[in-house]
Write a structure and sequence with these properties.
Blueprint: E1 2-6, H1 10-22, E2 26-30, H2 33-43, E3 49-53, H3 61-71, E4 78-83, H4 88-96, E5 101-104, H5 109-141, H6 151-168, E6 171-179, H7 182-189, H8 191-206, E7 214-219, E8 222-228, H9 232-247, E9 251-253, E10 256-258, E11 262-270, H10 278-298, E12 304-306
Parallel strand pairs: 1-2, 1-3, 3-4, 4-5, 11-12
Antiparallel strand pairs: 6-8, 6-11, 7-8, 9-10
Helix pairs in contact: 2-3, 6-10, 7-8
């Protein structure tokens, strides 16, 4: 635990620091509120507890407390006032400014440590809650089998990227891919084999993506890939990379080698105007990619078809 100690009286500051260090806490000293605020801005991701004097030059404790609380987005800083003010109105004012607790001067060492320990427990619980919420969020947007975006999260991310493309007047390509004869794999080898094929297909396709490309499971054995900045040529080349990485190497399951292929449909567009109806645009691109995928299936599978070829 790292503690920011803001106290303008040197003797008090040194005494408090000695008490806290003896209990194993790491202490960063600030001789006034202004210095404390400067330190906090640089170290806020590392500071867990702030022990703040009320009356200080440059920034008093109330002002410092409000500034700290205004910067909190994800983390939490537990703030304790160290003050000689004992009037109930002052105490209430301090707590209403965002402080979590207070210790009166002259302080009792045991009381100070106990209140710091309460803050430590609070911070630890807060961190565990954040971690749990993060895990729940990941679960809510992830396909359980393939560990890529599920359909809902996929469509949300694609819309975000289309908005970005609109702002930057950029091309955007959407690739829809489907595993050929996947039902036959499930029927002949079982659903465990089918699951393994799905996972391996995703891993191979992911190996051909840039870090900021988007992939998600659209449904069953269908997947969508969003490629920012890709015109027809780039989108088609990427789709062909996906096809080859599946076709060129056999899949293994239970000492058997399986020949797997995918069919792909691609749509693309230069997103020129930020006034576009992005959800409708995504729906249009998806329908075009789906139509191109259907043509790829219809004309022999294991191929890439671009949507603008459908009218030829």
């Amino acid at each position: 635990m790292k503690i920011l100690l803001a106290e303008d009286i040197t003797v008090t500051r040194k005494l408090v620091k000695r008490v806290l260090k003896h209990k194993g806490y790491e202490v960063i000293e600030a001789k006034d509120g202004g210095e404390a605020w400067e330190i906090f801005q640089k170290e806020k991701e590392k500071i867990d507890i702030a022990l703040v004097d009320w009356m200080m030059p440059r920034l008093n404790g109330l002002q410092l407390c409000k500034k700290i609380k205004a910067t909190e987005i994800q983390g939490y800083t537990y703030i304790i006032f160290l003050t000689g003010k004992v009037d109930i109105d002052d105490v209430v004012e301090g707590l209403e400014s965002g402080a979590d607790d207070y210790v009166t001067k002259p302080f009792n060492k045991r009381e100070l440590i106990s209140r710091i320990d309460v803050g430590k427990r609070f911070i630890q619980l807060h961190q565990k809650l954040r971690e749990a919420n993060h895990k729940l969020h990941i679960l809510s947007i992830t396909d359980g089998l393939t560990q890529i975006l599920n359909r809902r999260a996929l469509l949300e991310r694609l819309e975000e990227e289309l908005y970005r493309a609109s702002r930057e007047d950029a091309f955007f390509s959407l690739v829809m891919l489907d595993i050929d004869h996947f039902k036959r794999v499930n029927d002949e080898y079982g659903h465990q084999a089918g699951d393994k094929i799905l996972i391996e297909v995703v891993n191979r396709v992911k190996s051909k993506l840039r870090p900021y490309d988007i992939i998600g499971r659209y449904g069953g054995e269908e997947f969508l890939v969003g490629i920012f900045g890709a015109d027809k040529e780039m989108g088609s080349n990427k789709a062909e990379d996906f096809r080859r990485c599946i076709d060129e190497k056999e899949f293994e399951y239970d000492d058997k080698k399986l020949k797997i292929s995918i069919s792909l449909g691609i749509s693309y567009q230069k997103i020129k105007d930020s006034k576009n109806d992005i959800p409708q645009l995504l729906d249009d691109l998806t329908k075009k990619a789906d139509g191109a995928l259907y043509r790829a299936k219809e004309t022999g599978r294991n191929k890439v078809v671009c949507a603008d070829e459908l009218d030829e």
